[in-house]
Amino acid sequence: xxxxxxxxxxxxxxxxxxxxxxxxxxxxxxxxxxxxxxxxxxxxxxxxxxxxxxxxxxxxxxxxxxxxxxxxxxxxxxxxxxxxxxxxxxxxxxxxxxxxxxxxxxxxxxxxxxxxxxxxxxxxxxxxxxxxxxxxxxxxxxxxxxxxxxxxxxxxxxxxxxxxxxxxxxxxxxxxxxxxxxxxxxxxxxxxxxxxxxxxxxxxxxxxxxxxxxxxxxxxxxxxxxxxxxxxxxxxxxxxxxxxxxxxxxxxxxxxxxxxxxxxxxxxxxxxxxxxxxxxxxxxxxxxxxxxxxxx
Length: 296
What we know:
Layout: H1 2-37, H2 47-50, H3 58-63, H4 67-99, H5 105-120, H6 123-133, H7 139-145, H8 154-157, H9 159-184, H10 188-196, H11 201-229, H12 233-238, H13 250-260, H14 264-295
Helix pairs in contact: 4-9, 4-11, 5-9, 9-11, 11-14, 13-14
């Protein structure tokens, strides 16, 4: 009887988990194939497409002599740092302002709705919005023209700054929602005691709010760093990595090497190097998160 109950329990657990396990198995197979391809000269066309040869670590050794890879790494670092800093700081500012009781509730609702809408609309729609907004005859130049500022080709003259601002506009809502949830967990007693002691708003934020939500800030930094470093759609849709290679971040560089120049083996090696970089960044963040939690 006990054996029969165990079998039924295993079936009850196993059946719902079967799709997830099948997906995990397919994922592992895909990763294994990509790892194998990274040690070959596999290509989409030519002899290497029919009969790829084992080249060992040649693709990985080639990375460090590839100036375009090193340049894409530097561009990714700039794009990621600017986007993460902008999203985190702006999201925190919005969360603190929406928490204030002296702001009109209707203004809070409209602000939260507009910021969240920027986050939930599809990437391709964001591409069209920002493409039209920053066009030479777009709304941005029209608005600046009323202030006497001459029109500019934003995606041609300041491409990296433009896509970074677009990404901040796109992703700030996540940080705002995360920080708003963290602020709700802080007991009002702390602020009431600080008011009695005559603390200023900045002192209350510096000595109460910031320390109590520090772990949430670290978690926000971890998540948006991972998403931003591997973000592809917005940049590829707006600039394709151009003009020239001015916005060719690592995901776009990997795409170009794999599907524009047909070097699948080299692209696979690039992907694994990117995975190691993201893993290293994540490990650093988690180490900092533990340090922050110990200081609380």
